[in-house]
Design a protein that fits this description.
Helix 9 packs across helix 12 and helix 13 packs parallel to helix 14. Helix content is about 40%, strand content about 10%. The strands form three sheets. It has an eight-stranded parallel β-barrel with strand order 1-2-3-4-5-7-10-11, surrounded by four helices. The protein is of the alpha/beta class. The chain binds 6-O-phosphono-beta-D-galactopyranose. 6-O-phosphono-beta-D-galactopyranose binds next to loops. InterPro entries: GH, GH_1_N_CS, Glyco_hydro_1, Glyco_hydro_1_AS. This is 6-phospho-beta-glucosidase. Keywords: Glycosidase, Hydrolase.
């Protein structure tokens, strides 16, 4: 039986906007996610200009952690979580984003949450921006189109680094900074950067221009954090969906490698501290105008991260003689050459189930960067059924998580990968990001709330709650 190190950070992952609710409580301002309506499987979410009376916004109340955090943290403690990954709602601290002084009520809320977590032996692992830019920065400044928003982000980072420097060690700058590479899904550029592409603009160029400002913001925040507390461990956080060649046809193999550059670009810059040559070649070839200022190269080099956090859900496959219109289709990573992999199954939402892909990813990242890794999202979105006796037998979720834990165990124990921890996504049922649904449940704790916002909000333990509690207690990764 294989074990993981005793100090392995077994945890769970969440994001402020997907579970806190209290969208305008305690002085919080609207964020870019607060104007996103609910969608459904195959039905995109709408981004409204402002908050409209007759629309339903699932993130406004979410699962009301804002008012229930003490009870929820007791349940997290019962599971034996060693850490909890979540984000600080940027617009709870700076309601508009460009104020001089932070909102004390917002700061106090996170003091209370972190104190409660630490009281129960759970270490907070904090994402600075998890798609939660203040709406005012998006509307008035154009989000990360503006270099000024870099300063506003660094100010936000400085305030929370100082406020929580004795409560939080592990930080991440931007959640899934790279998912906007799928430029055909407006959701990603909007939530990552507060940006919408205008008529006649080149979406890829806009993505790289705003991405440069985020990379500078990330590097400046890392440097600032190190000044405030040299003990901080500050990571990058990327979405990783490995891309396989459909066959041993060298055209398929090279195509997969070219697509993988989309996955590697952002972490290459955040981990190595400079732009990779393949990107500079692309900028030159496409004539992209990237707003690199004098001194930016030094900023990037000085602001390299301590570890690489990433989300892993699925893998994708490409075939060189296929031109599919997968634009905006998250399942194929929006890849024009994306095809179904005949060797693996998929979830009800079409996300492939590939635990070996997680071991493959851990090895590729570790070989490329030689720094500690942290799996900060991994999970199985599914419909759950409540039996007559109130039990919830989420066997498919347990099978998914067990197989992925076995894969990470092999990466650590057989391949020698340095892995800080594992925080399965949605440790409690929360609002889905891509669809805004509650129906797409990830949690080991069920929440009585449906897609339309009906329900008691009552929490129920699923079978996976007890299963995961046993995994953490035993540290057992392979049966
Ligand atoms: C990632 C986000 C998370 C989470 C996850 C699951 O992209 O970092 O916020 O939402 O996707 O996706 P979904 O909620 O759409 O099922």
């Amino acid at each position: 039986m294989q074990q993981l190190p005793k100090d392995f950070l077994w945890g769970g992952a969440l994001a402020a906007h997907q579970f806190e609710g209290g969208w305008n409580a305690g002085g919080k301002g609207p964020s870019v996610v607060d104007v996103m309506t609910a969608g459904a499987h195959g039905v995109p979410r709408k981004i409204t200009a402002e908050i409209e009376e007759n629309e339903f916004y699932p993130n406004h109340e979410a699962i009301d952690f804002y008012h229930r955090f003490k009870e929820d943290i007791v349940m997290f403690s019962e599971m034996g979580l060693k850490c909890l990954r979540t984000s600080i709602g940027w617009s709870r601290i700076f309601p508009k984003g460009d104020e001089e002084e932070p909102n004390e009520e917002g700061l106090q809320f996170y003091d209370d949450v972190f104190d409660e977590l630490i009281k129960h032996g759970i270490e907070p692992v904090i994402t600075l921006s998890h798609f939660e830019m203040p709406l005012h920065l998006a509307r008035e400044y154009g989000g990360f189109r503006s270099r000024k928003v870099v300063d506003h982000f660094v100010r936000f980072a400085e305030v929370v680094f100082n406020r929580y420097k004795d409560k939080v060690t592990y930080w991440m700058t931007f959640n899934e900074i790279n998912n906007k590479m799928d430029v055909h899904n407006p959701l990603f550029l909007w939530t990552n950067s507060g940006v919408t592409v205008e008529e006649g603009e080149n979406a890829k160029e806009i993505m790289y221009q705003t991405g440069h400002h985020e990379l500078i913001a990330s590097a400046l925040a890392v440097t600032k954090g190190r000044e405030i507390n040299p003990e901080f461990e500050i990571g990058a956080m990327v979405s990783h969906v490995p891309i396989y060649p459909y066959s041993s046809n060298p055209e398929d193999v090279m195509l997969a490698e070219e697509y993988m550059r989309q996955r590697y670009f952002f972490p290459d810059v955040q981990v190595r501290g400079y732009y990779p040559r393949y990107a500079l070649k692309e900028f030159e070839r496409e004539g992209y105008d990237i707003p690199i200022l004098d001194g930016d190269e030094e900023i990037l080099l000085n602001g390299k991260v301590d570890y690489l956090g990433f989300s892993y859900y699925m893998s994708t496959t490409v075939k060189s003689d296929v031109q599919a219109d997968n634009k905006g289709d998250i399942v194929n990573g929006g890849l024009p050459h994306g095809v179904t992999n005949p060797y693996i199954q998929a979830s009800d939402w079409g996300w492939s189930i590939d635990p070996t892909g997680l071991r493959y990813t851990l090895n590729r990242f570790y070989d490329r960067y030689q720094i500690p890794l942290f799996i900060v999202e991994n999970g199985f979105g599914a419909v759950d059924t409540i039996e007559d006796d109130g039990s919830i037998h989420d066997d498919a979720r347990i099978a998914y998580l067990q197989s992925h834990i076995e894969a990470l165990g092999k990466a650590v124990n057989e391949d020698g990968v340095e892995l800080i921890g594992y925080t399965p996504w949605g440790i409690i049922d929360i609002v889905s990001f891509t669809t805004g649904e509650m129906k797409k449940r990830y949690g080991m704790i069920y929440v009585d709330r449906d897609n339309e916002g009906n329900g008691s909000m009552e929490r129920k333990k699923k079978d996976s709650f007890h299963w995961y509690k046993d995994v953490i207690a035993s540290g057992r990764v392979l049966d």
